[in-house]
Predict the structure of Fumarylacetoacetate hydrolase family protein.
Amino acid sequence: MRFGTLNGRMVLVRNDAALEVPGDVLAALARWPELTAWAATADWSKARPVTDAELGPPVPNPRQVFAVALNYRPHAAEAGFTAPEEPLIFTKFPSCIAGPVTEVTLPGGKPDWEIEVVAVIGAGGHRIPRERAWDAVAGLTVGQDLSERAGQLRGSPAQFSLAKSHPGFGPTGPVSVSPDEFPDRADIGFECLLDGEVVQRGRTSEMIFPVDDLVARISAVCPLLPGDLIFTGTPAGVGNRRNPPRYLRPGETLVSRVEHIGEIRQTFR
């Protein structure tokens, strides 16, 4: 199943057509088994044509947005760190969440890119065992953990969340795809292009802590709520670790693609 939002309403998406789902996004995700059963027999005669540019974020108003630092060994190495033995969890504040095709106002400083595969939580739960963790995931979507590095690394110890939560710094979409739609839900390729140049490329099978492990570990502490997002980490290739460092500039376009999901596109001003 592929789902997203259109004018703030949840829709199923198939062959460039959108079919509205009854009820609020978070309420629908809370009833995930009912939603999947409804989708299996939905009447698509009422669907309307849709483009990625018309779609909003798959979850416009998540209550919790988790993110994972240094979840790929090459990225940990380029940042000068040893790969962590436990997930390094921080937050992006929900007000930064945006849709798949957006224009982002750069805040100054050192704005950078981080392509991420984002897990969308369905019914959720507390203390979810790893062997049942994929059952808690309604879908995977494309995300960018846009980051203003000067603010992120200011102070000792550094703090991440505010510098990663400027308006538009959490674009997601164009749809969320349920795990059963992937040939291998644990091995999905993705890449990020800046003005046509590939700057990041990876596969989710390279994660230090895979999606199901993250769901189990996070839910062991925080109950996961319907519609919560988990930004699962970025591979090597971010701008601030290049020589010389390279940051986002007005007029540039960033495209982030994930196999079997699609792409999101951000332009900067």
In short: The two ends are 35 Å apart (CA to CA). The chain has a mean pLDDT of 97.
